[in-house]
Amino acid sequence: MLRRLIAAALLATAFMQPAFAETVIKAGHGTTTGHPTHLALEHFAKLVSEKSNGDIKVEVYPDRQLGEEREMVEGLQFGSVDMAVVSTGPLLAFAPDLAVVDLPFLFKDSQHVYRVLDGDVGTELLKSFESRGIHGLAWWENGWRHLTAKKDISKPADLSGLKLRTMQNPVHMAAFEKLGASPIPMVWGEVFTSLGQGVIDAQENPITVIYVNSLWEVQSHLMLTGHVYGPHVALFSKMKWDSLTPEQQTIISEAAKESTGFQREKSAELEKEYLAKIKENGMTVVEVDTAPFRDALRDLAATQQNIKPEMLERINAAAQ
Ligand code: EAX
Predict the structure, then answer these.
(1) Dihedral angle over CA of 59, 63, 67, 68, nearest 10
(2) CA 21 to ligand 1 center in whole angstroms
(3) Which of 55, 66, 180, 252 fits 28 for a cystine, CB–CB 3.0-4.6 Å?
């Protein structure tokens, strides 16, 4: 009797959890396992596995194992990468309308960001990837970006002539040029060494990225400028997407949306924890009056051809 029960239970489990996942999704990102995006991808993988009864397996590849961010996005188009969560660094080449989100001092606070990205504007921007062979899934978070350098920077004049690494993002480059720095666009994988060798003097990134990459080893000061919000956009290969059944697509869409809250909560939690650890590691943390930086960048939007005034107005209107 008992043996028959066990056999029946085993048979039932076998049907519920196929020994081999039918569909494998390779998901890459450009940061380390201590970053909230990695934790969210693991959470996402678990949700997808549960919802599909083990039929879909998400494999997570951290640390640019699937390439630098731009290479991963190209991989989505070619079908060699199934999913990637990337910063907006390389994205304007694929979805130019995203430029508006890269404007410094655009968002009032995180609630303003979430209202916009989870609302119509965010949905439209994700859809704008579709014609480029990419399916936009969700807006996750890299975080508010802050400056690091080997000296105190409390006003735009302190940036004068500084070789500042920016992402390969035209809006960010234009902004730092306007502020008086010499922006040097560079893929993330080269930044630590370049800072160490003095090829660049400074860089800007969220607290989580600064901490998980031990930037205090090559930078002495962290200026809490929060000059721009950095999303991490969860993207899927359209080629792969079209090969999935409608049920599988729903599972992935839902799991990505359900992981968004988890990801942002982790981001907020780790940001506090990591800032304390950055201080423990001896970095000088400077509070900055951002007013002169804002003033210097007031006219930036008008100089950027990919920024649609209509979309900018809708974003500004959502600040209240
Ligand atoms: O995606 O390139 C960057 O500065 C990014 O913020 C980083 O790689 C995390």
Answers:
(1) 140
(2) 32
(3) 66
